[in-house]
């Protein structure tokens, strides 16, 4: 399935194909514990797999912010679509990919480093 990966280790964001399996998600999030939450962009709900240990590392890196610039999620994240019947992870549609691409880019952070971030509603 198609997913959108914001990788804090390489400071990149890209569309990837993944089986959505647990070991693959651990690898992508660079952790041993994940959580799945929901984000909204322009009225579209997306599943977000997030590094549940993101705040427990030295120098946590915020990667997802709200429209006001407040950090919401730290560490690597993987965005998926949402199955309408079960709310399970689903492949991203082209429209969802475009929404994410329009909301993801490089930003200069308070420590004067450039970081790849995504902004959600």
Give the secondary structure arrangement, pairings included.
Elements: E1 2-7, E2 12-17, H1 22-29, E3 34-41, E4 44-51, E5 62-66, E6 71-74, E7 77-82, E8 89-90, H2 94-103, E9 104-108, E10 114-120
Parallel strand pairs: 5-10
Antiparallel strand pairs: 1-2, 1-7, 3-4, 4-7, 5-6, 7-8, 9-10
Helix content: 10-25%
User: What coarse outline follows from CA principal-axis ratios?
Assistant: globular
Average predicted local confidence, pLDDT: 92
List segments where confidence is low: pLDDT < 50 over at least 5 consecutive residues: none
Radius of gyration: 13 Å
Distance between the termini: 24 Å
Total domain units:
1
Q: What is the structural class?
A: mainly beta
Description of the structure:
15% of the residues lie in helices and 47% in strands. The protein is mainly beta. It has one domain. Strands 1, 2, 3, 4, 7 and 8 form a six-stranded antiparallel sheet that branches. A hairpin with a 4-residue loop joins strand 5 (62-66) and strand 6 (71-74). The longest helix has 10 residues, at 94-103. The protein is globular, with a radius of gyration of 13 Å. The two termini are 24 Å apart.
Spell out the key features of this protein.
mainly beta; 6-stranded antiparallel sheet; 4-stranded mixed sheet
Give a concise summary.
With 121 residues, the protein is mainly beta.
